[in-house]
Amino acid sequence: MDVRLVAVNGGAHAEQMLAVHETTATHAYAHIFSEPFPSTDVLARWAKHEGPVVLAVRRGDVIGFAAATGDLLEALYVLPSEVGAGLGTALLDAIGPVTRLWVLSENQSGREFYERRGWRLGGVAQGASDAGGVTELLYVR
Asked: Which of 46, 98, 103, 129 might form a disulfide with 14, Cβ 3.0–4.6 angstroms?
């Protein structure tokens, strides 16, 4: 794998994070959301993010990232063309000691990814507002 993992300040790389987030979410969540991707809101979210961020970079291009706040994994996105090469696991390991995350209930592949890595269902938040009213599941490890 010719990929470098780079710890950065999230706000400084918000546009690159947005590009990966949008591409990945549009692909992975097409069966969940029908409305357009909220690019402006997501860009603002990453621009103000103050927790750790790890970027996966290949030849200068960001192909994935993980972001956390405290012990909460806020995001783990890998471009669809890069899935299956171990990059998600590498990012998860590199982001630090996270013990909680929220996963969309209908994101079966995401849930399976975390479960294979020892995460377990810890609770449900019905219609979480930051997920567009879709049910999110709390995972813990």
From this structure: 46
pLDDT (0 to 100) of residue 63? 95
Instruction: Give the single-character DSSP code of 19.
Output: H
| Model pLDDT for residues 85-98, shown as the tens digit of each residue | 899 999 999 998 99
What are the φ and ψ backbone dihedral angles of 109, each rounded to 5 degrees? Answer: -65, -40
Q: Which two tokens stand for residue 37?
A: 């991707």
Domains and CATH numbers, the chain: 1-98 (3.40.630.30), 99-141 (no CATH)
How far apart are alpha carbons 96 and 67 in whole angstroms?
Answer: 10
Confidence of residue 57 (pLDDT cuts 50, 70, 90): very high
The radius of gyration of the chain from alpha carbons, rounded to an integer in Å, stands at 14
Between β-strands 72-78 and 136-140, what pairing exists: parallel, antiparallel or unpaired? unpaired
In three-state secondary structure terms, 47 is helix
Is 89 buried (19+), middle (13-18) or exposed (0-12) by CB count in 10 A?
Answer: middle
Cβ 79 vs Cβ 23: under 8 Å: yes
